[in-house]
User: Fold this.
Amino acid sequence: MDKNIPYKIYLSEDELPTAWYNVRADMKKKPAPLLDPATGKPVTADALSAVFCEELAKQELDNDSVYIDIPGEVLNFYKMYRPSPLVRAYFLEKALDTPAKIYYKFEGNNTSGSHKLNSAIAQVYYAKQQGLKGVTTETGAGQWGTAVSMACSYFGLDCKVYMVKVSYEQKPFRREVMRTYGADVTPSPSMTTRVGREINEKFPGTTGSLGCAISEAVEKAVESEGYRYVLGSVLSQVLLHQSVIGLETMTACDKYGIKPDIIIGCAGGGSNLGGLISPFMGRKLRGEADYRFIAVEPASCPSLTRGRYAYDFSDTGRVCPLQKMYTLGCDFIPSANHAGGLRYHGMSSVLSELYDEGLMEARSVEQTAVFDAAVKFARIEGTLPAPESSHAIRAAIDEALKCKETGEEKTILFGLTGTGYFDLVAYQKYNDGEMSDYIPSDSELEASLSKLPDIKG
Ligand SMILES: *Cc1c(COP(=O)(O)O)cnc(C)c1O
Assistant:
């Protein structure tokens, strides 16, 4: 082990960032504006405020402020579980017999089990500031719902969660954690909203999708007085809050002279990846340093690698603003794979733009290969990773193995977004040899892509 670099780098409390970093400010070409689904014109903060909290609507549209102060109460909450450790994966390096150095930023050390709490606490704080009664939201795998439930119980707000049906059924314990924090949890599509009833009628027996749960949660928020909707990924405000991951990582790297060559993250809607890479991307955009960034997505839901860069609806019910993003089409319902947090049809408009400009790479990986990596990591490094996070582990291992072939001593950094304690049904399938891979055919993708709205952008 390297004597100068601890196995786990823990920053002190006063090294916590006090402002979030907004990568949009450093982008020469900004992400395309959100469009109002009713008028087709760019949305205003006013219009967005019907759905989102006012302050968050402002953050969503802010392409210019480089830094936005983290409110004191949010910072205090962060101190309960941050700074999160940056870990040198010495044991994995040894097992792979690679000259590469591997680091991971571990976000699983809180009860929500993932990075989602970083944005949940911020969003619920602004809801509280605005004097709201509560928030509605959707959850796929359950991590976001848990994070919002925790944030709501902390600030004393009501919390209504629409949980994608397949996860609701596969993960009863996750549901119970949310209820323990006081949230009201409904499987989606449900019969409690107009959108839910329509989807149930059109696709009987559907196991749901994030896009559909979003529509239900938005409908509920808009029709309930004193409620707004909060979203755990995709939006630029979420990437902003998640920049706390990248800022801490950068402070730790700078402090110990660590210079990552490759930075890897799993990508569902793009929030952890966007948060991790943002400050490093800022350096790249300003010409101060260079890095390779790799987004890793499931082969079953390949929005960056096989989607189209176009305006699309954010939700199946087509009520949210349109975003220009890499998308598979808002009607795309991915097969029931085990990385529920990565089953969204589109990708953050910020990351989509960076990818389109060639500033970031993307690859897709198959489920069994992901679990091979997850189990290897658990056995060697000790931590049981979330299936979502394991997409990044897969790519990090693959890059480290390439270094073994070429003899290059690259420094590889990846985001370990969470733990997999609620994903044991997936691990059970894998351990029993019953896990399969599903890759959508071109014609399947074409079916939903052909229905993209006809908007030039
Ligand atoms: C939600 C989630 C993800 C994917 O979401 P992003 O917005 O793409 O980061 C990844 N890992 C874990 C553990 C999650 O809970």
